[in-house]
Write the structure tokens for this entry.
Amino acid sequence: MDSIQKIGIFTSGGDAPGMNACLRAATRKALAEGREVVGIRRGYQGMIEGDFVSMTSSSVSNIIQKGGTILKSARSEAFRTVEGRARAAENLQKAGIHGLIAIGGDGTLAGAAKFYEEHHVPLVGCPGTIDNDLFGTDETIGFDTALNTAIENIDKIRDTADAHDRLFLVEVMGRDAGFIALNSGIGGGAEMVLIPETLSDIKKIKSHIHSLMSEQHRSSIVVVAEGDELGGAAEIAAELREDDKFKDIDLRVCILGHTQRGGSPSARDRVLASRLGVAAVQALLDGHANVMVGVIDNQIRLTPSRNVYSRKKSINYELLGLTTLLN
Ligand code: F6P
């Protein structure tokens, strides 16, 4: 669309490794197309406050390998209000920004759709979240790096668990989704994986862990997604400790937390982010709005933003089967 001469770009929500690589790709693609690029700091919050910075090719030099986001990120409460969004639209208009590239997760895309409904500023989203829980792409930017971080830590925990014949409950991120838990559980050889997508029966869990500890294994690792319906690792551990059967089992909890959000992006995340950043700018210039770019079966695909946050991406049930078969 020729009317888009100046493109605003921002990162929003929980940061994810690879967001910088995506900023770099989108900025350089837009510049190569003869467009001006404006970075919006701290996502929607910066849009409301008019915190804009002009981007050149060198603004994104030497960032492909860096975790976090050079434009910073935020979860803006003010953007949830009609007044906040009106202020943001006013600032964009004043700055002459007529198209947006947003890098973030479901909250970012939901905010974008609302903003488009009210103010009609064309926006293309790039899926950036470690959770991998976005419909419309096989993988999100940051998932592969977070998964590798989780597995690296599970390997370390296995060494100490084995040395002491201990049971470890390892909590990984995933408030609503078990992608990190499921994949790190398989890759880390966990004895059990608990995820929010499946209902876990505490009685069965107790009896399975107990039999693993007493009959087959001398150490066991249970990977728990933070959003499991039974609670996080600490809650489940408390439940086990109350049971007499577990009084002789040496049990520890390890919460990996925000270590999974940081670090240099993996090769896979850098390539994915670069492809998506370029594709997002192309989509915007081709006249698309209110869509997210994703990669499905190795092909770039566009999905309406409303589908991204309203439809649930399914976990791979074949992988779930492996967690029981291989423990
Ligand atoms: O959405 C990504 C994520 O890392 C979730 O896995 C996690 O529950 C949440 O963000 C944590 O958010 P915050 O850093 O705002 O506490």
